[in-house]
Each structure stands twice: as structure tokens, then as C-alpha cells.
Specification:
Helix content is 51%, strand content 0%. The chain has two helices and no strands.
Length: 106
């Protein structure tokens, strides 16, 4: 009896279950979630940005790194500009009400 060679079969993609649909929210429900969502995301993203900036400050060690004033300007110039742009995006839309404050953990 001779064995016939079969061509290797391509691996089958795993079956993906469809995502459960999110419940439809009313306009009032969406409005009620805006502030908590902002606070949650602002805290997470702000803390992440602060961590990244803290990591940059570790590059200032002259015993471990060699850099020039031009390097520092090239590093921080775009960051400062991006920060000003981000702040400017908020300044036109700031609401002056007393609500839960966003706080960052260092």
C-alpha cells in the first residue's frame, strides 16, 4: 500500500464571536456619561503623559548621555507646541461650572 502525500493545509482562522451590541442609550443617558467619561480618560491619559515626560527627564543625566542644547530644543520644542495646541483646543470650549476635578497621580 502506498501512502499518498497530501498538500499541507493552511491553518484555519479561529472563529470569532460577534461583539455583543452595546445597548442604545438615550440622549439624556449619553449626556449623563460625558463628565464621568471625561474624568476617567483625562486621568488615564494625563497620568500616561506625565509618566512619559518623567522618563524624558531621565535623559538629562550627563554621565549616561551626550547631548547638546540643540538636541534639547529639538526634543522639547515639538512637545511644548503640542501641549499649547492641546490646551488651545480646550480654551474655546471651557465651561465654568463646579464639577468633580481631574487629578493626576505622580
Amino acid at each position: 500500500m502506498t501512502a499518498t502525500k497530501q498538500a499541507p493545509q493552511a491553518p484555519q482562522a479561529p472563529k470569532v464571536e460577534p461583539k455583543a451590541e452595546r445597548p442604545k442609550l438615550t440622549k439624556e443617558q449619553r449626556a449623563a456619561l460625558r463628565r464621568p467619561n471625561f474624568v476617567r480618560l483625562a486621568n488615564a491619559r494625563g497620568n500616561k503623559a506625565l509618566s512619559a515626560i518623567t522618563a524624558l527627564s531621565k535623559l538629562a543625566n550627563p554621565g549616561a548621555y551626550d547631548y547638546t542644547e540643540a538636541d534639547v530644543a529639538a526634543l522639547f520644542g515639538p512637545l511644548i507646541e503640542a501641549l499649547k495646541n492641546a490646551e488651545g483646543a480646550f480654551s474655546a470650549r471651557v465651561k465654568t461650572t463646579t464639577k468633580e476635578a481631574v487629578s493626576f497621580v505622580k
